[in-house]
Design brief:
Layout lengths: L8 E10 L4 E4 H4 L3 E4 L7 H7 L7 E6 L13 E5 L14 E5 L5 E9 L3 E5 L9 E10 L1
Length: about 140
């Protein structure tokens, strides 16, 4: 029986949930399995590790701590700006997702965390940082 190993291209279906039970992503709902190379760093570490050793048709449920998912929330990723630096035509609210451009032209997704009369706090952490994740995984194919 063939099992997935590092370097194999695989296709898997998955449903991702938070510990609260809230579903955050599902290849099943999209109707298309995700394809990636095992061990190539294309997936979060815990997901990659979970698929390694699975056989086609096998299903498993895994709990992935934040350290093996998107990492902890890092304070240095929270940036505070004076409110006057916000463009006049922009009216952000806490929870809004914005895209900023770094000095070298790279887009960075941020979330508005706080907005006061004097400043705005933007969070550049991944939206799933600090969260433990759960996945129901089915190995569909080993290419």
């Amino acid at each position: 029986m063939q099992v997935a190993k590092k370097g194999d291209k695989v296709k898997v279906h998955y449903v991702g949930t938070l510990d609260s039970g809230e579903e955050f992503d599902s290849s099943v709902k999209r109707g298309e399995p995700i394809e990636f190379e095992v061990g190539a760093g294309q997936m979060i570490a815990g997901f990659d590790k979970a698929v390694e050793g699975m056989s086609v048709g096998e299903k498993k449920n895994v709990h992935i701590p934040s350290e093996e998912a998107y990492g902890p929330v890092r304070e240095e990723q929270m940036v505070k700006f004076p409110k006057e630096q916000i463009p006049a035509d922009m009216n952000p609210s806490p929870g809004d997702q914005l895209v900023l451009t770094t000095a070298d032209g790279q887009p960075v997704q941020v979330t508005v965390k706080e907005l006061t009369d004097t400043h705005i706090v933007l969070d550049a952490n991944h939206p799933m940082a600090g969260k433990d994740l759960n996945f129901a995984i089915e190995l569909v194919e080993i290419a």
